[in-house]
Write a structure and sequence with these properties.
4 copies of one chain form a homotetramer.
Chain A (H helix, E strand, L loop, with lengths): L5 H8 L7 H20 L6 H7 L4 H7 L3 H24 L5 H18 L1 H13 L5 H17 L8 H20 L7 H12 L4 H9 L27
Helix pairs in contact in A: 1-5, 2-3, 2-5, 3-4, 5-7, 5-8, 6-7, 6-8, 6-9, 6-10, 7-9, 8-9, 9-10, 10-11
Chain A binds a DNA duplex (21 and 21 nucleotides) through helix 2 and helix 4.
DNA sequence: CATGAATGAGCCTTCATTCAT
DNA sequence: GATGAATGAAGGCTCATTCAT
């Protein structure tokens, strides 16, 4: 399991404790899937290895997820949930859209610095299950964007263009950082650049992008219950 | 074979004609690979289907490429070559870095509008063989970026941030357009947004982004040795 | 649960009511098995789906049947019992072997007309558990056959040949009818043909085969212990 | 490989010699499939065992048959072809429909006597792939039936009833014989019984059913080419 | 060079059966 | 007696790759 900043690691691993049996097994399987995805890539991960890493058999995996595809999706959902939860928590007291935007962007880049393997995993899962991950993450970005516009800080050409700018640039920068291709302070530079793309002048953009990141808080350990995907014995026709 | 704007289609298909036999077979195989990649996605494409679409056998494919991976890479190289060739040709007379940048960006978005299937293919191949495709394409963007900086039009935070901005935003916008998620005039909005991110004020950025795209010219048709018309490989759709 | 003529349906479903608990659970499981067999075929039926349709868990099934094979056999026994019961009841007052034979044959063909799904289920179970189903059903046919011989109406080549004739022809005709391949009045034609094969002349054979079928009577409803109405298992279609 | 009467064995095995490579492999696989079907039953036969018995790998089987189901069908086709070929050859000089019918019926029963394992295999395959086997075999029976009717020997109630009689009775009798449940001379008794069911009087029916079976001739070794089912690399969507 | 049959490792998925609670 | 999570042994099928012709 690649190293992950403590608050996030907790958000993921703590879930396994103190859950009813079925949920705990499920959580263990998701954890195993994440490890395998990180090690081999989503595309090359196999159900057997996920099962083996979880210390279970293939059959058990299929008692919890009806398809390989579903494992990917559920991992996506879980990551999205854990990430968004933590990040929005840490932004709770920030009223300015511009700063919220900068914080959000830099948080992902900070993740890429702190644990490149996790960042690459995230990108990989996001590419494989965009519905589950990207969509959720982007909802938060969109809210901050609209807030900044309403507050007169952003002057955007179009919402669609702004979202492509934010999503595309941050994604690309995460990759650069995780792959070790980025210079120092890339996160701040990217945040500044994005804010400028959203219509802020250089100086204020830079000022906002340089404010310190609020700390991530430990999770409150809310078990993730996603409408139990227990395998129904019906399908087939 | 999905529809592709004529000048680009020519750049790809004409290659097959008038080449020495070995090279021609190779070109036909690459063409077949592109078709299969477009139809099934790079990940799901099989060597057997590529061979079948090329009207050859699996063994023949392995006479030209030693590995599946190599096929993907060579397709990447080929696409990069064909695209960059045409695009830089059309920019030959543009002296301004800012306009060259806008033209480059919009050209890719225009491709996504004109033939979404090809755009998705490009993104797919770029993800599978970044070394071959992305790197080459980005070299041109970098040149234009530096030109714009030297000319005093761009004021960037860092070259790395600027490149992530350009590459990430355009990539993301291509996807939006190709998937039919983008509003009208998305290409111009994106180009404007990118220019602003590179440090231009809104007005000049918009002005540059709105200049008409120079026409793509037909390829000069690589010197034909044998005058004989060659049947090109027929796809399935 | 596919449609089944009322008297037969009753014979099957009423069993579940007013039984001691263990027997009732067992009956519900058998009913569920029948439904699944009818829907998927005996070969494709799974223990998990039988349990699910019965509203129970796999473990419960194994508390009543030690093996999948045993479920099939018990279903065979049950069907044989229910069918023979009703059919012989309706023949109680028929003294002639020839007419009893014709009635027996036509009854099965009538079942195939009335509810093709049940007929196919019957054939399927009979093929999978011949000991349980076929043997029992044939005992009745054999009795009628001997009666007819004794009464001088049948002149058979050998008992074995006669039994193969009866069993084979009726089985095949059930399939034809259930699959919708048979012309109108196939039941009568088959009954006539069988009687001729047993040595009757055409005219009397036809006369006997055309006599009206005696009505099936409703079951006498095995002694109900608890008056409470019990919810019967609900199928999917 | 269970024992099979020489003329039929030849018809099946000789095919493998002197064929182009692909056809020979295919024939070997079909032969292996027949062996496994005979040993385990069609339902329990696995692709891996078929491959192993043929001395090849699973992949090879799938180079010749795209599906397990297709193996069953092709075995059915092959059996039908070989059987019908030999049987109709031996009837070439018989002008009477009644005798042709009796010969056809008795031939299948004779097969069941000579090699019960093959008879059971035939019944098993016929149940699993009725389109391929039953339909072909019944075409010959239908021709003889119509001939007998035209010649005034048969007086049938309906063609459909007659076909159910023939097919059902012979099938059932094959099973009885193959399972060792039938008395001596069952074949003649069955043939007589069927002829009577088709409207002949007892005496002439018995006379026809007792005529000697014409000998089976050795095969002319015509390679069976059934529109090559080579796996096409296209499917999928 | 091209052919194309063959390989074999391995993946996803299913399901009868067990067993601790 | 019922539960239901877990098991594990296969089984069908795919596909990159090899190699004799």
């Amino acid at each position: 399991m690649p190293h992950l900043p403590a608050p996030l690691a907790d958000a993921l691993t703590l879930v396994a404790a103190g859950l009813p049996k079925r949920e705990r097994t499920r959580a263990q399987l998701l954890l195993a899937a994440i490890q395998v995805f990180a090690a081999r890539g989503v595309a090359a991960a196999t159900m057997q290895e996920i099962a083996a890493v979880a210390g279970m058999t293939t059959g058990t995996v299929y008692n919890h997820f009806s398809t390989r595809e579903e494992v990917v999706q559920q991992v996506g959902l879980w990551l999205a949930h854990a990430l968004c939860q933590r990040i929005t928590d840490s932004q709770q007291d920030i009223p300015e859209g511009a700063e919220r935007m900068a914080i959000g962007n830099r948080r992902y880049l900070w993740l890429a610095e702190q644990s490149p393997a996790w960042a690459l995993l995230l990108l990989d899962v996001a590419a494989a299950a965009p519905e589950q991950l990207l969509q959720k993450v982007q909802a938060y970005a969109l809210a901050d964007l609209r807030l900044g516009v309403k507050q007169g800080d952003f002057h955007i050409v179009s919402e669609a263009a702004a979202m492509d700018l934010i999503n595309g640039t941050v994604t690309q920068a995460m990759r650069s950082i995780a792959l070790g291709l980025a210079p120092p302070n890339h996160a701040t530079a990217i945040a500044t650049t994005v804010l400028r793309g959203l219509g802020m002048a250089h100086k204020p953009a830079q000022a906002v992008a340089r404010r310190p990141l609020p700390p991530l808080q430990a999770p409150v350990a809310t078990p993730v219950r996603t409408g139990r995907a227990r395998r129904t014995v019906q399908g087939k026709s």
